[in-house]
UniProtKB/TrEMBL annotation:
CC cofactor: Mg(2+)
InterPro entries: FTHF_cligase, FTHF_cligase-like_sf, NagB/RpiA_transferase-like
Family: Belongs to the 5-formyltetrahydrofolate cyclo-ligase family.
Protein name as catalogued: 5-formyltetrahydrofolate cyclo-ligase
Catalytic activity: (6S)-5-formyl-5,6,7,8-tetrahydrofolate + ATP = (6R)-5,10-methenyltetrahydrofolate + ADP + phosphate
Keyword annotations of the record: ATP-binding, Ligase, Magnesium, Metal-binding, Nucleotide-binding
Protein's UniProt keywords contain Magnesium: yes
Length: 202
């Protein structure tokens, strides 16, 4: 666990991103396999029909093996796409082996926008979220764009009424820190899974 009591949000991002980027390919592949095995036995995944996931970027935990396993089990997967008209928001588009991909303004691969491939957020069973760091309370630190905080804000406000989509954060084990300085827009998430641990916060 990284000590973070005296670090700012940006300093935490810098430290953890450096650690992620230093991982070798063998380690990434091993962690990817552990993650896939863990997620495929998760009760929420076992009953899911449609999930949102993301493609690995910036040393993030590799999701490829899990995505392909979902395809093999007929679980529909959806990827985040930057909303073309609503700044700072995401759409989720169906992702399969024939999806046409393109790079967004952050140079991250996403499906080419097609309104026929968009699934409303409330129809997703699970939304797997990337993160830079998390702490023992479930506080999640992202890259700073606020995309997932905005995406999850409605779920968070109504979580007593609905479980969909259920958010699960994915991270390397070393991305856990002691404390993340919180901001009013931060949305805590109920569960974070690493290759070796499962954390439930509420």
């Amino acid at each position: 666990m990284t000590t973070s009591n005296s670090l700012s949000r940006n300093e935490i991002r810098h430290v953890i991103r450096q650690k992620r980027q230093s991982l070798d390919e063998t380690t990434q592949q091993q962690q990817s396999q552990r993650l896939a095995s863990s997620l495929l036995n998760h009760p929420k995944v076992l009953t899911a029909q449609s999930i949102a996931i993301y493609l690995t970027n910036d040393g993030e935990l590799n999701t490829d093996k899990f995505i392909h396993a979902c395809w093999a089990q007929n679980i529909k997967t959806y990827l985040p796409v930057l909303h073309p008209f609503s700044k700072g928001h995401l759409l989720f588009l169906h992702y399969h082996e024939h999806t046409i991909m393109q790079r967004n303004k952050y140079h991250i691969l996403e499906p080419k926008l097609n309104v026929l491939d968009v699934l409303p957020l409330e129809q997703l069973d699970i939304i797997f979220t990337p993160l830079v760091a998390f702490d023992k309370t479930g506080a999640r630190l992202g890259m700073g764009g606020g995309y997932y905080d905005r995406t999850l804000s409605k779920w968070y406000a109504q979580k007593a009424k609905t479980n969909k989509p259920y958010p699960i954060g994915l991270a390397h084990d070393f991305q856990q820190v002691e404390t993340i300085p919180s901001e009013h827009w931060d949305i805590p998430i109920p569960e974070i899974i690493t290759p070796n641990h499962q954390f439930k916060f509420y």
